[in-house]
Amino acid sequence: MAVPAAATGGLAGHLDGFVRAIRDAGIPVGISQAVDAAQILTVVDLLDREQLRHGLAAVLLQRAAQRPAYDVLFDLWWPLGDRPVADGEDDAAADAGSTLDVPGSDDADLAELMREQLARLLRDGDDEALRRFAREAVDRLGRGQPTPSGQSYFSYRVMRALSPDTLISQLLAGLLGDAERGGLTEQVARQTVRERLAAFRAAVEAEVRRRTAQDKGRDKVAKNAVRPLADQVDFLRAQAADLAELRRAVAPLARRLAVRLSARRRMGREGRLDFRRTVRASLATGGVPVVTHHRPRKVHKPELVVLCDVSGSVAGFSHFTLMLTQALREHFTGVRAFAFVDSTDEVTRFFRPGADVADAVARIGREARVVAFDGHSDYGSAFEVFADRWATAVGPKTSLLVLGDGRTNYRPPGVPVLADLVGRARSAHWLNPEPRRQWGSGDSAADRYGEVIDMVECRNAAQLAEFVTTL
C-alpha cells in the first residue's frame, strides 16, 4: 500500500516512539536499524498488521529472546485494527469491522452465547477472527470497577466468563471427528488446541493493555507490561519460569569465556626477543631490524580454580555460575571446582564432560561435604578449610574465581586467608550477585573482601557477559 505524503510525518513520529520504547525495554536498536525500520513502512502493506509486525522485527531484533518484549510493545504501538493508529487519531477506524454476531450487553445469556462463538472460532482456527473476538470480549466482559491506578479492563474477567479451558474436550471432538482416539493424531489435535487457547489468552491480554494504555498512557503501561529480558533478570530473584531462558542466556557466555581463554593460550605473543638472531638478520637490510626473531614461548596450560558459595541464599546464582565451570571443564583439564557453605569440598568430579548441570548441582547438595556445622554461610571457615586441604591448588599459573555474596552471618570473614590465596594466584576475581550499594551492609563483608580481590557486581546475565568480554 502506498503511503500518502501527508501521513509520512505522523508515521515517522509514531515509529520513533516505538523505537524509543524498544530501547527502554533493554533491546539495543542502532540508528541504522531505525532507518531500516522507516524503510519497512514504505514497502510493506500497512493494512496487513502481521506483515508489519514481522517486517519491523526483522530489522529491529537481533535475538529470538527479544521477541516477547517486542510483541508486547508492538501491540501497544500498532493496535489491532484496519490500519496502524497514531497518537491523537480517532480509534473508530481501528474498531471498524470488529463487531461480532453476538447480542448486546443487556442480554442475560451474553457470556454463554459468546462462549459458543469462541468454541466455533477455536475449532475453525481463524487467527484474525479470534483476535477480533478477543477485542469484542474485552469490550463486553472485561470492564470492572476502576482500580486506584486507573485500570478499568481486566483479562481475568474475560477468562472467568468464557472459561475457555473447559472447551478442550469439545474442541478435540470437533478436530478429530470420526478419527480413532489415541496415537499421533490425538497428540497433534491436543497441541493444536493448546496453541489456539494460548493465542486467545494472548489476544485478550494485548487488548486489555491497549485499552489501559488509552486511559493511562502508552509509555506508562509499556514500563509495567514488558517483562525484563532474560539477561536482565537478577539471578537471586529468578523464578521457575525464568530458569530455562536464563540457562540459554548463560550457556553461550560460558562457551565464549572458554574460547577466549583457549585463543589467548594459542595465539599469545611470542617469547622474548632473540637479540643475537635479530642483529644477524638485520645485516641483510643494512643494519635495520626489519624482521625480529623471538625465542620460543613457553606455553603453559591455563589453570582455573573456582570457589563457589552454594548456600540457600545464593542458590540461583550458584546454579548459573556453575554452568561456567561446566563449560570450562569441557575445554580445559586444568579446571578445579570447589563448593562451600561453612566447609569446603572439591566438586570437580561432578562436572565431567557432558554432565547435566542441574544434576551436578543436586549431587553437590547430596554428596559433597560442604556443611560442617549448622549449614549457614561461613566464608572464613570455608577459606581456611580450602587453604589447609588444597594449599597447592593455587599457584603462579592459576586464575582464582570466587562466586558468592560475601555474607558471613557475622562470623570471621577470613580476609587474611583470602589475601594469601590471591597473592599466590596469577589473577583473582570475585563475582557478587548483590547490588554494589548493599556491599558492606548488615553481615556483608564484600567491602572488606574488595580490598584484597577484584570484586565485580554480577547480578544478571548481562553483567556476566560484560565480565566475560572484559576478562
Percent of residues in beta strands: 5-15%
- The best one-word shape is globular
CATH architecture of the largest domain: 3-Layer(aba) Sandwich
What average pLDDT do the residues reach? 79
Structural class: alpha/beta
* Span of the ends, CA to CA: 51 Å
CATH class term of the largest domain: Alpha Beta
Low-confidence stretches: 1-7, 82-99, 103-108
Percent range of helical residues: 40-55%
Number of DSSP strand runs: 6
Instruction: Note the run of SSEs as H and E.
Output: HHHHHHHHHHHHHEHEEHHEHEHEH
The number of helical runs is 19
Largest sheet: 6 strands, mixed
> What integer value in Å does the Rg equal?
30 Å
Describe the structure.
With 471 residues, the protein is α/β, with parallel strands linked by helices. It has three domains: 1-96; 101-217, no CATH class; 240-268 and 300-470, Rossmann fold. Helices cover 52% and strands 7% of the residues. It has helices at residues 5-24, 31-43, 49-60, 67-77, 92-95, 110-124, 127-141, 155-162, 168-176, 183-216, 218-225, 240-266, 275-282, 315-331, 357-367, 379-389, 415-424, 446-449, 461-470, and strands at residues 303-309, 335-340, 344-346, 398-403, 427-432, 454-457. Strands 3-2-1-4-5-6 form a six-stranded mixed β-sheet, with helices on both faces. It is globular.
Relevant terms:
471 residues, 19 helices, 6-stranded mixed beta sheet, Rossmann fold, disordered N terminus, alpha/beta
Summarize the structure.
By secondary structure, the chain is of the alpha/beta class.
